[in-house]
Every structure is written in structure tokens, then in C-alpha cells.
Amino acid sequence: MMRAHIDSVTCRGKRFFGWGWALAARPLVRATLHIHYAPAAGGAEVDRFVCTLGLQRPDIANAFPDTAHAANAGMIFFGMIRPGREIRQAVLHAELSDGSHQQLSLPDFFNDGRRAGIGPAPRRGGLGMRLRWWLTAAPRWLKRRFAAPPTAAPKAPTLALPQTPAFLVFDHDMGGGANRYRQEMVQKQLAAGRPVVLAHPRIGDLSYGLRVLDGGGERHASIATQQELLALLAALPLAEIAVNSLIGFEEPGEMLEWARAARARSGARLFFPLHDFHAVCPSWTLLDQDGSYCGIPDTGRCATCLPRNPAMFNDIVSGRTIIDWRQDWLAFLAACDEIHVFSESSRTLLARAYPTLAPDTVKLLPHDVSWLRPQKITFARAARLTIGVIGTIGLHKGAEIVNRIAAIIAAEQLDIGLVVIGTLESAVIPANITITGPYDSGELAALLLRHQVNACLLPSIWPETFSYVTQEIMNLGMPLAVFDLGAPAERVRHYALGRVIPEIDARAALDGLRALHAAANGKPETGAPS
Description:
Helices cover 27% and strands 26% of the residues.
């Protein structure tokens, strides 16, 4: 029997977001939330939303100590419901690791748009335990991505905006390289004496955060809707608009139109840095419906993929197509005073999607990594191969590749270690993977040495636009293998201790790592790809 509990559901407008857990006798490998609508003129209809599985839930592990996979029973889900349609029921459909399927009805799923509990809660359950989990045990990356707790409610916007021309930046607030870049921009503007206004989605309660930073410090407001946010910003005097990211905004097209109109009205400079491929596709990592890199195909294939694509924040809604998406973005990009890319690979991919975009507006400007000081470490070169995978490893970062490598090592009884320095988002964690948990950048060298890592793998399966992790590993002088994708391959190709793996495949990755390890020890690379 499958058990499930929805800890929080927030519904605002047509969007909903929530998290909870699901547990069965076998690990879940896929879960889909089915929203059933009342019959309309065209008959009854169902929308399906793929849940993200494999989130750490130490509270569920404690509650079900006899179930080994309970520690990774957490899930999150996000979607858009059809406006004006009556929802009859929600059903969780799950595929288990043995190929069997189970489903569980979720009565009163929306529960007036807030929280619903379904099925038996943990034995030590209840709201108090769930809040304690959020405050003390929830993974740091989850708190960072979805910072608003489930009970948060937007407050009336009473924030006083600057009266002098400001630097306005739109961004998500989920961490990572884009937020680091934004912080660098903000610090430069503040150092120059210019006030900064930051607007970002608050995914946890589907509202929007607004921050004002100036000589008087930092002030905050929470705003209920995107329309209210833009109406408030209409009175802001502008010097520059930076669209750092629109991931998580309810209507990206509306944001782009507002930015273009504000530039035309105020004469403010309009700037766009390409941190991902949201400007090309709602699936911002360019992973298709099967979880593979799409290569930016013709739009006919996109029309088939996008309605089935499980990417969170997939902004294609009923009546809009990839053609609409690209038209909105092209109009915005053409209005930009400057577009920054951080690798030649990104420039090539942007041009593939927008061949008519004037190339002189697209500037190649790699990230400033001077803060990452080179710190060569003496790794255990001659010891057995121990592979290090670094970061928050979700689907697009190669979680399945890591699991398959572990399976090969176990099946062939290879004397190879596998360590994830960070986290691995997977419903099933193979027993032969060591996971350290979240770490701070300054701890990386010590963790690599402690776990005797002597070769690193960046298993990312999308064309990353830069990758700070790649730079950190190279600065430490560690052997590094990457797939032939994006900026990491561009840089590792010229790294003396690097190897670019031509095929996105676990076996190819393992062969490449074994060859890299052999080369580091002056041995022939027999049986490994070049």
C-alpha cells in the first residue's frame, strides 16, 4: 500500500505549488499528479503534472525506520490549473522500481487553496513535526529555493521606492550562479551610489518579493500578484533594467513586454545575461520530455515535446506555443542594449534559436572567478579510483548518470569508490554511493581529501552556460571528466587533467574516468575512449 502526505499546497490564481512525501514498499521512480476537471462541452479532462521525487526527508526515515528508502520519500509539485474549471479530484499515480503501479486519491487536495493531509501521517506526525522538519531538518537547498514557509501570506505593499533613478533587477531567488552574478551587479551599483530594486518570485507561497537597497540599508515587501508588482514598479524612476532571470514568474511574456515598454518610456538601459536557456524554451535546461538534451530542434518537435515536458515552471499554458514564446523573447532581446553570454557555446545556441538577432548585441564575457583562488591539492593519485561528484545533483545535473555508474560498479564488483560531495536528488540512493550532504565552497578541498577522491565527474546532461563547480575543480588541480556539452566541455578541452566524454552515457563516463585515472598514473588507457 502506498502512503502519502501533502504537507503544503498553495494555490494563487491559476498556479499551485506544494510539497509532501510518498512511500510504498518499493521506491517510487516516477509520480504524476492527475487533476480531474468536471465535464465540460468537450467532455471530462485531466491535466498531469510530474512530481519531483527523491527529496531528503529525515522525519519520514525516523517515522518508518524499517523502510530503507524512506529517507528520500520527499516530493515537490508545481502546475497551472485551467481557469474557471471545477476540479473534481486529484489522484497521485506512482510507478515503483519493480515496474508496478499504484495510485492514491487525494481528497480535498486544494482545501481552500492551502494545506491538505492525505493518508496516514508519520507516527510522530502532525503540523508541529512538519514545521520542525522545515525549520531544522529540511535540506538547505530546499529552503533556499522555496524560502517562504507554507503559512506565509503576502503583506500589503507599503515599501517606499527610491526617488532617484534606480537599478531594477528581475531574478529568481533560488541560489546558484545566477544569484551570485546578481549579487555582484548589486554590489557594483551600490558602490557607485545608485539605489537598487530587486523583484523576485517567492515560490513557497506564489507571491513576489520586493527589496530596496540603498544608503539607508535594505527594506522588504511581499506582493500578492505579478500585476500588482508591475503596477507598483511603474512609478519607479529607472537608470537600468537587468532581467537576470524570469524563472518562476507567472507570466514571463508580460514581464518582457513591461521591460521593453519601461525602457522606451524612461530611456533606461536594458540588459540581459544568459544564465540558462529560458529565453529559448520554458524547459530552461533544454531537456526534452524524455529528460534528454534536445539540441534546439525545429519547432515542430517542440510542439510535441512541451505539452508532455515535466520541467518545473514549464510556462507553456493552454493556447500558447513555442512560437509565441520565441516571439515574446525575440522582441525583448532585440530591444536590449546588451546581452551577455558566458561561453561561446551559449552564443552558438542562442543564435540557433534566434538567427535574426543582431550578433553585435551579444557579448562574450566569462564570469569573474578571481574570488576562486587556485589551491592545488595533493590527491591520492596512485590509490584506487575514487570518483567525486560535486554539487546539488538533480535530474539536469546528471542524477541518473550517477546512479547508473553506481549500478555498473556494483554489478561488475569493481574496486571503485563513488562520493557525492553535496546532495543527490533520487528516490533510490544506491548503497555504494557515499553522500556528504550540503557543503560550503571553502570546505571542498578538505572533503575531497577526506574521501580520497582522485578523479571528478561533472555529470551534467544539459549545456551549462558556465559552471562554477568546473572552475573550482580545475583550480584545485583535480582530474575532471565532463560530457561534450556547453561551457564545461569548452574549458575542460584545454585543461591538462581534463577529459571530454563524447557520449552522454554512464558506461562512457566510467570508461573515461578509468582512462583519466590511468593517465594520471602514467599507465596505458586500454579499453577506454580517447
